[in-house]
Amino acid sequence: MSDRTVPLNLPIDLLTGAAVRLVADHAETQGLSEAEAAAAILNAAGLERRRAVLDWFAGQWSDQPGSDSVEMLREMRRGR
User: In 3D, which of 44, 4, 37 has the Cα closest to residue 22?
Assistant: First the structure.
């Protein structure tokens, strides 16, 4: 993971028009700056990705001994 004290430099020309509109719309509806809106969108996408991975693991091993550890991991992640 990168140093969290260094700002992420994301040139707008790397984004599609749809991505730019997504950030602008989220900023407007939530009363955020565009940087805050982009961070919120990325954070939500990251959480959803982790949740999907945990759900996949739960589906793979739900009938095996120790499968409750997946639920424990999910609960730990929710606390973050």
Answer: 37
